[in-house]
Design goal:
By secondary structure, this protein is an alpha/beta fold. It contains 15 helices and ten strands. The two termini are 37 Å apart. Bound molecules: adenosine-5'-triphosphate (ATP) and magnesium ion. Adenosine-5'-triphosphate binds next to α2 and α10. Adenosine-5'-triphosphate (ATP) binds next to α2 and α10.
Length: 395
């Protein structure tokens, strides 16, 4: 058995051994940085289905910010609590203050945070919100959240400029979790977008990179209709054939393992170019092989076992957290032959009434298990999920 390490790395936010097919986004982001450095602040929405590689792309963009001497304020864990104005504001303040503090300390020590790994190491994890903290800031209830964010960011910009930074880039992941909630009269998203617009028009060099599921651009548009003109969109999808090939073959070059061309093509077909599955299948193939030259026949012999593992490790875990109604809606969708199914057809084929069904579908969309291609039209974003549901339904 070849004694070389297995380079593939499936998992949420786990950097792949080779980041394939994101050259265009990286080039476009470099232009955003270039413009920020010359006095024009732009914003980006990074959106795409679960597991397509948004977070690992964001890691790369943090690294680019550091390479180019921009201050990155990154948070990878926005959640529903951040729809509450106080939590949102204290988190934002905490993250900005923490980054300024960390980078200042490093400067004093005449050291530079050079790599993304340095940036996220335990002493700095506060930057990413990976540790709990006690926010000490107060939200002034007499002033709107928008005004308070503007005031705070303006004040910080003076300080940041004095420290010699060309600009600040906010990279905020899972941002689809931040929503305006009418029932509480909370308008965090609308206020935040309003504040971005305001601070940028006052000449602060802040760029905002908001990242999340496909529902993110919809949330943003609903919050502020003019927001469409404020953001460039990076639509993160599955990798095309050539990029999928690179994602598989590039990491192997540093190892003893070799996959035949037919095998690579077959993996691409079976995974649909879905980045998480590429990592998963390749890791499994290597773990199960006792020779370094692997061909299509070797793979075919273990393919069903790989799919069983995938069902257990990936799909079962997602299904476990769903309500009966949500599972029913998924099963009905899976049983339909069309790729895109309408709300009406799901309703007709299930015995779920309109209100509850629309709640189930919204929750499923938030979890990234279904995707709303257009109003009232749904599809599965994750390859093999429909096949999995049909198999489950059968058992
Ligand atoms: N461009 C890529 N090339 C190769 N592998 C990739 C690429 N992008 C992502 N991956 C792999 O896919 C997996 C999922 O990536 P990531 O967690 O960034 O997805 P995500 O879009 O952020 O998912 P989620 O919406 O669930 O947060 C990881 O194992 C990662 O290594
Ligand atoms: Mg992610």
């Amino acid at each position: 058995m070849p004694n070389h390490f297995n380079p593939f790395n499936p998992g949420a936010g786990r950097d792949p051994p080779y980041l394939a097919g994101r050259e265009e986004e990286i080039d476009r982001f470099s232009l955003v940085l270039r413009d920020l450095g010359t006095g024009r602040a732009e914003n980006v929405l990074i959106h795409g289905p679960r597991g397509t590689g948004k977070t690992v792309l964001l890691h790369k963009l943090v690294q680019l910010c550091m390479d180019e001497d921009f201050l990155p304020v990154a948070r990878f864990q926005y959640n529903e609590k951040h729809s509450k104005p106080k939590t949102f504001f204290t988190t934002l303040q905490h993250d900005v203050d923490k980054v300024i503090e960390t980078f200042s300390k490093m400067e004093k020590a005449k050291k530079k945070i050079q790599t993304f790994a340095d940036y996220i190491k335990p002493t700095n994890v506060g930057i990413l919100g990976a540790v709990s903290y006690e926010p000490s800031y107060a939200l002034n209830t007499n002033t709107s959240l928008e005004d308070q964010i503007v005031e705070y960011l303006m004040q910080k910009w003076n300080l940041i400029q004095k420290k010699g930074y060309k600009g600040v880039v906010f990279l905020l992941d899972e941002f689809h979790m931040v929503r305006d909630t009418k029932q509480n009269d909370w308008h965090v998203l609308a206020d935040f977008i309003g504040a971005i617009n305001d601070v940028q028009s006052r000449g602060c060099m802040y760029s905002f990179i908001l990242c999340g599921l496909p529902i993110l651009p919809i949330n943003i548009k609903i919050a502020r209709s003019y927001s469409e003109r404020m953001f460039t969109s990076f639509n993160i999808t599955n990798l095309n054939h050539d990029s999928s090939r690179m994602a598989i073959t590039e990491p192997l070059k540093k190892t003893d393992w070799r996959f035949s061309d037919e095998l690579v093509d077959s993996i691409i077909r079976d995974t649909g170019g879905y980045p998480y599955f590429i990592q998963f299948f390749c890791r499994e193939i290597i773990n199960r092989m006792d020779k370094s030259d692997v061909g299509l026949g070797d793979y075919e012999r273990i393919k069903d076992m790989i799919k069983d593992n995938l069902s257990r490790d990936f799909f079962d875990r997602r299904i476990e957290t769903l309500s009966d109604g949500q599972i029913k809606a998924l099963q009905v969708m899976a049983s339909m032959p069309e790729k895109k199914v309408t709300f009406t057809s799901i309703q007709k084929s299930s015995d779920i009434t309109k209100g509850p069904l629309s709640n189930h579908l919204r929750r499923l969309e938030e979890k990234g298990l279904i995707y709303r291609a257009k109003r009232g039209i749904y599809q599965f974003p994750i390859p093999l999920f429909q096949e999995y549901l049909l198999r489950k339904n059968h058992i």
